[in-house]
């Protein structure tokens, strides 16, 4: 009897164990989803960034910027949607990166730094930058850290530069500087440009993107060695998403995509050069305001983008109304006599007539392109035709077709255009010799100017700009909080 009861009890315990063990084990084994799984399950990659020409901004065509485009490619690589979140400042960025499960990644032009080791984990690098001390060209140029003493210096709060200055202050306790969480890099550069502060410290990529807006800022000296821009994830041991990000970054750096992206966003620096960049900035402030309304009006009338027309005008004449070339083209939009007549322009040297005629002509050229050429290529083809003429462009398209390339793709046709200057090739064409390299440079340059103007007039800034018309010369004589800052 006793034995029987014992047996029954043992059986009951066994049964209990059989039922419970998997349950208990199951509880232990239900793992939290990893960062990568969370992104995949949600189907969305939430990326936090800053609003800057070097990172993320909106132009008339929507969201863009180096970090945006790179993150978008990463989202595509993961097979998910990209959702951009904007940080108010760097402290906010790191707090949200670590506190919120929703934010997967920071892609905000951030450099790796010792102080950030605890705040985040870093991806493989994708851009090399140098921290630079920036001063006003009319001031004495500082050349070494000691020259920072006694100057009004402001940097972004929580930035790698604040960290650098804090380290410097240990060596030079007299060093004074202000950290602000109410400004962005372009605000700092504007303050130097206008003499509101003496110096700031920004990374070379930020300067490269912003130099074209601020004619008075110059690099004083590099403060320290080149360093790496990286993506960052929360400081946990979950490296699932980071590992994917690294795989992706390695891939785009090997297959040339990263290089193309750098060229697209930073290419103007090579193209314009340092002097060209601040000359552009000066012209943006001094010359464009005289013609901006006319660009807007004419462009609207002819259904084209005024920024593109302004970029075209800059390429043609640097926004100078009385330019005349050896070949007889004249005026702000450099119209030939024939074109001017056809467009109803009586006086080519009148900038308003020139802009009107140029926009009308551009719209007409674009309209006459074959229907098979889609945007955005259509715009690049139209610019090329504006420069070299529709006949020569057609010749280059035929050459492209003969070579097995796509005659409707600008990337392909621009390879053919320079051939129009070589006898071997132009003798096979209907319209013959042309300086075919020119339209290629022409289109490249205009695309750069267009990008620059797109940042300066991005929709979220534009309402302000229209309100106070201070796009080109905001009046700031104190250090205002961010909301009060006029757009660039
Ligand atoms: N790259 C800087 C950082 O990581 C922020 C922006 C800049 O000034 O370049 O803190």
Automatic annotation (TrEMBL):
<dbReference type="InterPro" id="IPR023703">
    <property type="entry name" value="MltF"/>
</dbReference>
<dbReference type="Pfam" id="PF01464">
    <property type="entry name" value="SLT"/>
</dbReference>
<comment type="function">
    <text>Murein-degrading enzyme that degrades murein glycan strands and insoluble, high-molecular weight murein sacculi, with the concomitant formation of a 1,6-anhydromuramoyl product. Lytic transglycosylases (LTs) play an integral role in the metabolism of the peptidoglycan (PG) sacculus. Their lytic action creates space within the PG sacculus to allow for its expansion as well as for the insertion of various structures such as secretion systems and flagella.</text>
</comment>
<keyword id="KW-0472">Membrane</keyword>
<keyword id="KW-0456">Lyase</keyword>
<dbReference type="GO" id="GO:0008933">
    <property type="term" value="F:peptidoglycan lytic transglycosylase activity"/>
</dbReference>
<dbReference type="InterPro" id="IPR023346">
    <property type="entry name" value="Lysozyme-like_dom_sf"/>
</dbReference>
<feature type="active site">
    <location>
        <position position="316"/>
    </location>
</feature>
<feature type="region of interest" description="Disordered">
    <location>
        <begin position="466"/>
        <end position="488"/>
    </location>
</feature>
<dbReference type="GO" id="GO:0009253">
    <property type="term" value="P:peptidoglycan catabolic process"/>
</dbReference>
<feature type="signal peptide">
    <location>
        <begin position="1"/>
        <end position="25"/>
    </location>
</feature>
<comment type="similarity">
    <text>In the C-terminal section; belongs to the transglycosylase Slt family.</text>
</comment>
<feature type="domain" description="Solute-binding protein family 3/N-terminal">
    <location>
        <begin position="44"/>
        <end position="269"/>
    </location>
</feature>
<dbReference type="GO" id="GO:0009279">
    <property type="term" value="C:cell outer membrane"/>
</dbReference>
<keyword id="KW-0961">Cell wall biogenesis/degradation</keyword>
<dbReference type="Pfam" id="PF00497">
    <property type="entry name" value="SBP_bac_3"/>
</dbReference>
<keyword id="KW-0732">Signal</keyword>
<dbReference type="InterPro" id="IPR008258">
    <property type="entry name" value="Transglycosylase_SLT_dom_1"/>
</dbReference>
<feature type="region of interest" description="LT domain">
    <location>
        <begin position="270"/>
        <end position="488"/>
    </location>
</feature>
<dbReference type="InterPro" id="IPR001638">
    <property type="entry name" value="Solute-binding_3/MltF_N"/>
</dbReference>
<dbReference type="InterPro" id="IPR000189">
    <property type="entry name" value="Transglyc_AS"/>
</dbReference>
<protein>
    <recommendedName>
        <fullName>Membrane-bound lytic murein transglycosylase F</fullName>
        <ecNumber>4.2.2.n1</ecNumber>
    </recommendedName>
</protein>
<keyword id="KW-0998">Cell outer membrane</keyword>
<comment type="similarity">
    <text>In the N-terminal section; belongs to the bacterial solute-binding protein 3 family.</text>
</comment>
<dbReference type="GO" id="GO:0016998">
    <property type="term" value="P:cell wall macromolecule catabolic process"/>
</dbReference>
<dbReference type="GO" id="GO:0071555">
    <property type="term" value="P:cell wall organization"/>
</dbReference>
């Amino acid at each position: 009897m006793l034995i029987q009861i014992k047996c029954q009890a043992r059986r009951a315990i066994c049964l209990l164990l059989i039922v419970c063990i998997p349950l208990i084990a199951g509880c232990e084994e239900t793992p939290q989803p990893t960062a990568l799984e969370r992104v995949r399950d949600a189907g969305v990659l939430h990326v936090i960034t800053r609003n800057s020409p070097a990172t993320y901004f909106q132009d008339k065509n929507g969201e863009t910027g180096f970090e945006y485009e790179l993150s978008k490619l990463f989202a595509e690589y993961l097979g998910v949607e990209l959702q951009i979140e904007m940080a108010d400042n760097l402290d906010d960025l790191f707090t949200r990166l670590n506190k919120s499960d929703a934010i997967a990644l920071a892609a905000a032009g951030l450099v790796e730094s010792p102080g950030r080791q605890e705040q985040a984990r870093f991806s493989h690098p994708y851009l090399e930058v140098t921290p630079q001390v920036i001063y006003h060209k009319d001031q004495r140029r500082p050349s070494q850290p000691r020259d920072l003493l006694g100057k009004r210096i402001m940097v972004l709060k929580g930035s790698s530069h604040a960290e650098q200055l804090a380290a410097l202050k240990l060596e030079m306790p007299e060093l004074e500087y202000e950290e602000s969480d109410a400004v962005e890099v372009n605000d700092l550069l504007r303050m130097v440009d206008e003499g509101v502060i003496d110096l700031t410290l920004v990374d070379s990529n930020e300067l490269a993107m912003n130099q074209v807006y601020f004619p008075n800022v110059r690099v004083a000296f590099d403060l320290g060695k080149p360093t790496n821009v990286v993506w960052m994830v929360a400081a946990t041991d979950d490296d699932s998403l980071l590992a994917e990000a690294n795989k992706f970054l390695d891939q785009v750096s090997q297959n040339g995509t990263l290089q193309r992206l750098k060229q697209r966003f930073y290419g103007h620096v090579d193209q314009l050069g340092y002097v060209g960049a601040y000359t552009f900035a000066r012209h943006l402030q001094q010359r464009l305001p005289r013609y901006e309304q006319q660009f807007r009006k004419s462009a609207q009338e002819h259904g084209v983008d005024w920024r593109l027309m302004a970029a075209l005008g800059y390429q043609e004449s640097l926004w100078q109304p009385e330019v005349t070339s050896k070949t007889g083209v004249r005026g702000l939009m450099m119209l030939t006599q024939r074109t001017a007549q056809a467009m109803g322009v009586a006086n080519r040297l009148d900038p308003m007539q020139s802009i009107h005629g140029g926009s009308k002509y551009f719209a007409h050229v674009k309209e006459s392109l074959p229907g098979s050429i889609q945007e955005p290529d259509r715009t690049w083809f139209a610019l090329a035709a504006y420069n070299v003429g529709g006949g020569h462009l057609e010749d280059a398209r035929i050459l492209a077709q003969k070579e097995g390339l796509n005659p409707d793709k600008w990337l392909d046709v621009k390879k053919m255009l320079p051939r129009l200057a070589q006898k071997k090739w132009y003798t096979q064409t209907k319209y013959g010799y042309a300086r075919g390299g020119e339209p290629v440079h022409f289109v490249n340059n205009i695309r750069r100017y267009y990008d620059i103007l797109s940042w300066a007039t991005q929709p979220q800034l534009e309402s302000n700009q229209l309100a106070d018309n201070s796009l080109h010369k905001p009046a700031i004589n104190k250090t205002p909080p961010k909301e009060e800052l006029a757009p660039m």
